Protein backbone atom coordinates (compact mmCIF):
# COMPACT_ATOMS: atom_id res chain seq x y z
CA UNK A 1 0.00 0.00 0.00
CA UNK A 2 2.85 2.39 0.78
CA UNK A 3 4.14 2.01 -2.78
CA UNK A 4 0.68 2.63 -4.28
CA UNK A 5 0.30 5.86 -2.30
CA UNK A 6 3.86 7.15 -2.86
CA UNK A 7 2.87 8.73 -6.19
CA UNK A 8 1.67 12.34 -6.33
CA UNK A 9 -1.54 12.38 -4.32
CA UNK A 10 -4.73 14.19 -5.19
CA UNK A 11 -7.11 15.50 -2.53
CA UNK A 12 -10.84 15.79 -3.07
CA UNK A 13 -13.55 16.96 -0.71
CA UNK A 14 -16.08 14.17 -0.14
CA UNK A 15 -19.84 14.49 0.24
CA UNK A 16 -21.45 11.86 2.50
CA UNK A 17 -23.89 11.02 -0.32
CA UNK A 18 -21.24 9.40 -2.57
CA UNK A 19 -20.80 6.21 -0.55
CA UNK A 20 -21.80 2.68 -1.46
CA UNK A 21 -23.30 1.35 0.78
CA UNK A 22 -25.10 4.49 1.91
CA UNK A 23 -24.11 5.87 5.31
CA UNK A 24 -26.73 5.71 8.06
CA UNK A 25 -28.35 9.01 9.11
CA UNK A 26 -26.32 11.01 11.67
CA UNK A 27 -23.27 8.79 11.11
CA UNK A 28 -20.07 10.04 12.78
CA UNK A 29 -17.75 10.70 9.81
CA UNK A 30 -14.69 10.61 12.08
CA UNK A 31 -15.10 6.80 12.16
CA UNK A 32 -14.12 6.71 8.47
CA UNK A 33 -10.70 8.29 9.00
CA UNK A 34 -8.03 6.37 7.00
CA UNK A 35 -10.58 3.84 5.69
CA UNK A 36 -9.64 2.42 2.29
CA UNK A 37 -12.17 3.06 -0.49
CA UNK A 38 -12.62 1.94 -4.08
CA UNK A 39 -13.12 4.72 -6.64
CA UNK A 40 -16.04 4.17 -9.02
CA UNK A 41 -16.30 5.71 -12.49
CA UNK A 42 -20.11 5.76 -12.34
CA UNK A 43 -20.41 3.11 -15.07
CA UNK A 44 -19.78 0.02 -12.93
CA UNK A 45 -16.00 0.16 -13.20
CA UNK A 46 -13.30 1.11 -10.72
CA UNK A 47 -10.50 3.58 -11.39
CA UNK A 48 -8.32 2.92 -8.36
CA UNK A 49 -8.06 3.16 -4.60
CA UNK A 50 -7.98 5.95 -2.09
CA UNK A 51 -8.35 6.49 1.61
CA UNK A 52 -10.44 8.90 3.61
CA UNK A 53 -9.12 11.60 5.89
CA UNK A 54 -11.37 13.15 8.51
CA UNK A 55 -10.99 16.94 8.66
CA UNK A 56 -12.11 18.01 12.17
CA UNK A 57 -12.28 21.76 11.45
CA UNK A 58 -14.81 21.09 8.66
CA UNK A 59 -16.38 18.01 10.31
CA UNK A 60 -16.03 16.50 6.85
CA UNK A 61 -13.99 14.07 4.79
CA UNK A 62 -11.29 14.31 2.17
CA UNK A 63 -10.31 11.60 -0.31
CA UNK A 64 -6.57 11.00 -0.78
CA UNK A 65 -5.63 9.09 -3.95
CA UNK A 66 -3.02 8.95 -6.71
CA UNK A 67 -5.90 8.86 -9.24
CA UNK A 68 -6.18 12.30 -10.87
CA UNK A 69 -9.85 12.12 -11.89
CA UNK A 70 -12.42 12.63 -9.12
CA UNK A 71 -14.63 9.55 -8.68
CA UNK A 72 -18.39 9.46 -9.16
CA UNK A 73 -18.89 7.20 -6.11
CA UNK A 74 -16.85 5.58 -3.34
CA UNK A 75 -17.09 1.93 -2.31
CA UNK A 76 -16.29 1.49 1.38
CA UNK A 77 -13.57 -1.05 2.08
CA UNK A 78 -13.05 -3.18 5.15
CA UNK A 79 -9.46 -2.02 5.70
CA UNK A 80 -8.10 0.93 7.67
CA UNK A 81 -4.60 2.14 6.79
CA UNK A 82 -2.24 2.96 9.61
CA UNK A 83 0.20 5.87 9.25
CA UNK A 84 2.77 3.40 7.87
CA UNK A 85 0.15 2.19 5.32
CA UNK A 86 -0.08 -1.15 7.06
CA UNK A 87 -3.60 -2.51 6.51
CA UNK A 88 -5.81 -3.39 9.46
CA UNK A 89 -9.17 -5.13 8.95
CA UNK A 90 -12.36 -3.34 9.95
CA UNK A 91 -15.74 -5.00 10.32
CA UNK A 92 -18.16 -2.57 8.67
CA UNK A 93 -21.06 -4.12 10.60
CA UNK A 94 -19.43 -2.98 13.85
CA UNK A 95 -18.62 0.40 12.34
CA UNK A 96 -22.28 0.95 11.41
CA UNK A 97 -23.64 -0.63 14.58
CA UNK A 98 -25.38 -3.49 12.78
CA UNK A 99 -25.00 -7.24 13.25
What would you note in describing this structure?
It is globular, with a radius of gyration of 13 Å. By secondary structure, it is mainly β. Strands 1, 2, 3, 4, 5, 6 and 7 form a seven-stranded mixed β-sheet that branches. β4 (46-55) and β5 form a beta hairpin. The chain contains one helix and seven strands; from the N terminus they run βββββββα. The model has no long low-confidence stretch (mean pLDDT 90).
Most strands sheet? 7 strands, mixed
Determine Rg (CA atoms, Å).
13 Å
**Quaternary assembly:** single chain
Listing every helix as H and every strand as E from the N terminus to the C terminus, the arrangement reads EEEEEEEH
> What's the number of helices?
1
Mean pLDDT: 90
Compute the number of strand runs. Answer: 7
- Helix/sheet category: mainly beta
Distance between the termini: 29 Å
Shape: globular
Give the uncertain stretches in residue-range form: none
Helix proportion of residues, in percent? under 10%
Present the secondary structure layout.
Layout: E1 10-14, E2 19-20, E3 35-40, E4 46-55, E5 60-65, E6 73-81, E7 87-89, H1 92-95
Parallel strand pairs: 2-6
Antiparallel strand pairs: 1-5, 3-4, 3-6, 4-5, 6-7
Essential attributes:
seven-stranded mixed sheet, 99 residues, 1 helix, single chain
Give a nutshell description of this structure:
The protein is 4% helix and 41% strand. It contains 1 helix and 7 strands, in the order E-E-E-E-E-E-E-H. Strands 1, 2, 3, 4, 5, 6 and 7 form a 7-stranded mixed beta sheet that branches.
Amino acid sequence: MARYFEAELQRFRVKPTVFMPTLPPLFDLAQLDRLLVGLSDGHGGFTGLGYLEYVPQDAGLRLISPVAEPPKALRLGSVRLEDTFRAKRVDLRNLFGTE
